[in-house]
Design goal:
It contains three helices and no strands. The chain is an all-alpha fold and 111 residues long. It starts with a helix and ends with a helix. One of its GO terms (biological process) is phosphoenolpyruvate-dependent sugar phosphotransferase system.
């Protein structure tokens, strides 16, 4: 990997990984009906994804300005992880919303 791209590539990977972990924790919190905690984890995951996208944007900007970004397996992995975590984020938000609705419906039936 070209040394001057290492920081951006690692930022994409580290922040995407952090976001993924937070999203998994959000689903677990929702399963326990801890919706405030789930939302806090989703918010933190959104922030981590924003940092990953900033690093990605830095590489895209560099290339758009005529400075080639060397394609490496690490960069491909980082991009793949960012893309899959972004999709996981949207799915997690839907899952948490479904748990909230299920909890509401269940409590209404009991009451």
């Amino acid at each position: 990997m070209v040394e001057h791209n290492a920081n951006q590539v690692m930022a994409i990977m580290v922040n995407s990984t952090q976001a993924h972990r937070l999203l998994a924790a959000a689903i677990q919190a929702a399963k326990r009906t801890e919706f405030k905690a789930a939302q806090q984890k989703i918010t933190a995951a959104d922030q981590a994804l924003a940092k990953a996208r900033q690093a990605q944007t830095a590489l895209l900007t560099k290339e758009a300005q005529g400075h080639p970004v060397h394609l490496t397996l690490l960069l491909i992995h980082a991009q793949d992880h960012l893309m899959s975590t972004t999709a996981y984020c949207e799915t997690t938000k839907e899952i948490v919303a479904l748990y909230q609705k299920l909890t509401l419906v269940t409590s209404e039936k009991k009451g």
